[in-house]
Specification:
This protein has 579 residues and is α/β, with parallel strands linked by helices. The protein has 24 helices and 12 strands. It has 2 domains: 300 residues, no CATH class; 197 residues, Rossmann fold, CATH 3.40.50.300. A 6-stranded mixed beta sheet has the order 8-9-10-5-11-12, with helices on both faces. Strands 4-3-6-7 form a 4-stranded antiparallel beta sheet, with helices on one face. The chain has a two-stranded antiparallel ribbon with strand order 1-2. The chain is elongated and about 90 Å long. The protein starts with 7 loop residues before the first helix and ends with a helix.
Amino acid sequence: MQAKKGIPYKYFGLLLGAIAVGILPLLFDTRYATNLLILAAASGVSALGLTVLLGYTGQISMAQATFYGIGAYAVALGTTRYHTNWWVALAVGIMAAAMFGTFLGMATLKVGGRYLAMITIGTQIIFSLIMLNWIKFSGGPDGISGIKRPPFFFQVTTAHDYSWVALGLLFIVGAFVWWLRNTPLGRSMVAVRENELAAEAMGVNTVRTKVVAFVISAMLGAIGGAIYAAGFAYISPDTFSYDMSIQTLAATLLGGSDAVVGTVLGAGALTFLPELLRDFNSIYLVMYGFIIIVVIVFMPNGLWGFVDLAAKRLVKRPTMAKAETELQVGGQGQMGEELLVVTGLGKHFGGLKALDGVDFVVRRGELHALIGPNGSGKSTSINVISGIYVPTFGGVRFKGKEIGGKRPSKIAQGGMARTFQNLRLFRELTVWENVLIGSQKKGGSAAEVDDRARGAIEFVGMSGKAFERCKNLPYGHQKLVEIARQLAGEPELLLLDEPAAGLNQTEKQEMVHLLKRLHNAGLTMLLVEHDMSMVAQLSNTMTVLNFGKKISEGNPDHVLSDPAVVEAYLGNREVALNA
């Protein structure tokens, strides 16, 4: 039994797209209109590259015209100067764009937002200047003419015939980008867009994901450029200017940056809209710009956002099927063995010693509480263990292997999971999508990934809310989703950073009940929590920190009666004993 992940109208859209490919060229009976159709197809393919990069991954680029130009020049030079097959020339262009996209992606990993935009703007300007001035290679301002069209089983001689080719390639690329969204890679991209730190902590290699997004975007840009070059049989450097990158970005935002159909419609609208406004003579550019601004400002999800919202209201919300196999909690191994060993751990922030030589051991099957007053180093310990911080000194061994200083994604893939004190859900995604991203960390077939996600959602009691967006859920339910997201990866050790923070008393007792079920199922947990009654109900062992040092350790009775703990944490002995 499979979960109902899709909505029928999306699949119906593929059929409509295929029909449009066959019909649209028949509706354009003039050469000028046909050329616009080819231009719209080429622009649509290039804009779909930004759908992957901006819409899915949340990375902005103002250099899409560069990749568009690389594909166009590869086909132009290949078919005119070097007399190679069009498809071979396209392959060369795609590979060149992929290499350049890899370089650009790697070069921009440390920056984001406006700084990333500035770097890509500079890249675009450099490309335009090179093509304009390297006359022996690019033809300079005169450009390259006589570009061939791709050979098929039949000869493509007219623009009208070629329009079917251009639209067919647009359809194939659109289907690929739509399919990509629901693959592990696509879900990883969306996780990076929603919350990069949470994605990394869930096993997503954010560096690789962002670079791959840049590469795919570059490759699709090159394909768009090749379609353009073959359609018009002539190119020149002014075609691939910064203005074109702006137009491509506008097309993506206009239709809806993460919607394939919206991006295609946005590209089509920006291609044909100026022609429809020509009758307004001198003010048509003002109207053109005004329309774009209104849509982007007042329709943040683009034109397609309204269609998608209406469709979701009309289509009955799907229900989640039951899991076929029981969720495996706790991993394999001998109960009581050392699972996590922290030795002489230190973390300094300049002169501040957040951790200063901390030692403790978490054994398989136990619920180990890490407690202490505010500023004692509890959350810092979690962050160092999970890879968010690199230790200043000391060691962290997990399952016998040193993990101190490793990337969070690498640690997570080894069987560790964590929650955050401040929720880091993917708020724009549904419960199902959040948990599915957590489930894919363990790998396996698509059916196995889906089944683990269903099992985790059932375990925390959120089956009835599986297709609700997380941002619409009450805070207590969001906490449950965060735990389910980690359970779906079937971790061997779960780090809980104040899971009861912000919950009312009823919700806290429900959390206690859930954590007891996990403990009874054999899951090893390291718990950071301020609520001492909750800690006393749950923990087997306590480690107490104060000013970055361990001051006490043992079972709850021993720790809560330790004078050092009473003085540092609880204030008086009676409170400690009654807790």
